[in-house]
Write a structure and sequence with these properties.
Blueprint lengths: L1 H23 L2 E5 L4 E5 L8 E6 L3 E8 L4 E5 L5 E5 L3 E2 L4 H135 L1
Antiparallel strand pairs: 1-4, 1-7, 2-3, 4-5, 5-6
């Protein structure tokens, strides 16, 4: 009994594998060059319409039935249904192929325009970058000139500060020298005053001495003159 129950399971599994392989190896078909094609739930017009597929829609062919004239197909979104085999083509319709070719031609014609536009944009960007570079170069040169001027000014300021310090030292030395000269002048003035004072005193003393001596000399001469008489 177990073996008998096992056979139907194996058979069912085999059928599922065969169906899976058939779906995996399904060929691609395209709707014919018609406006709309009806996809039905079964093989025949009596079955419900699932979808109305436009021309050029790609479908996966699962199986075909020559007796009914229908093919089992699957859409990209997974819907499975039946369509008349004569409404399927191996290649896209001429209209769709023409539309695709026209689209490619349009893209090919637009590419030069796009490239020309991109070239013009690149040239404009290059001009802008060149102008910006020139302005930056001028700014750089101006800054370099200003920096050099600042360096020279700073060097002059340092030199002037050093000269100012040296001048202050010289002024301080000269001030000291002037003070020394003033002190010497004062000393010389005091010495001259003392010398004049001494000279004056000597003159006065000499005058006094002369005043004392001369009368005596005069009296002595008189006495001498009388004695001679």
């Amino acid at each position: 009994m177990d073996n008998m129950n096992r056979y139907p399971r194996l058979f069912a599994t085999l059928i599922i594998l065969i169906c899976s392989c058939a779906q995996a190896q399904a060929e691609t078909r395209y709707i014919t060059d018609q406006f709309k094609v009806m996809m039905r739930s079964g093989e025949g017009v009596q079955h419900k319409i699932l979808k109305a597929l436009p021309s050029g829609t790609p479908l996966s062919l699962l199986e075909s039935n020559r007796e009914t004239g229908y093919s089992k197909v699957r859409t990209k979104n997974g819907t499975v249904g039946y369509i008349l085999t004569r409404q399927l083509m191996k290649n896209p319709s001429a209209r769709d192929h023409l539309a695709a070719t026209e689209a490619k031609l349009k893209i090919a014609l637009e590419e030069p325009k796009q490239l020309s536009s991109e070239l013009m944009t690149a040239q404009s960007n290059l001009k802008e970058l060149t102008r910006n570079f020139s302005q930056l170069q001028q700014t750089k040169n101006r800054i370099a000139t200003e920096l050099e001027t600042i360096r020279r000014t700073a060097a002059d300021a340092i030199r002037m500060a050093e000269e100012r310090v040296e001048l202050r030292k010289n002024v301080a030395n000269l001030t000291h020298q002037i003070e020394d000269l003033k002190q010497e002048n004062r000393d010389l003035s005091n010495q001259s005053t003392r010398d004049w004072f001494l000279v004056g005193a000597a003159v006065i003393i000499a005058g006094i001495l002369i005043g004392l001596i001369l009368p005596r000399l005069h009296v002595q001469r008189r006495k001498d003159s009388w004695g001679s008489l």
